[in-house]
Amino acid sequence: MIKFKEKTREELIAGFKRAIERKREFEAQAQKEFADMRKRGAALKGALYPP
């Protein structure tokens, strides 16, 4: 069995999978936050500069 710093191949693969999942969750949360910021910005612009 191949070991890298005392971790087996399976442990390394599991670690990478967890890291990828965390990255996906972070990106999804960031997209939601940016959408919310855009909505608030549009609302503020509409309030400051009425048509």
UniProtKB/TrEMBL annotation:
Keyword Ribosomal protein: yes
Cellular component terms per the entry's GO annotation: ribosome
Domain of life, source organism: Bacteria
Annotated keywords: Ribonucleoprotein, Ribosomal protein
Protein name per the record: 30S ribosomal protein S7
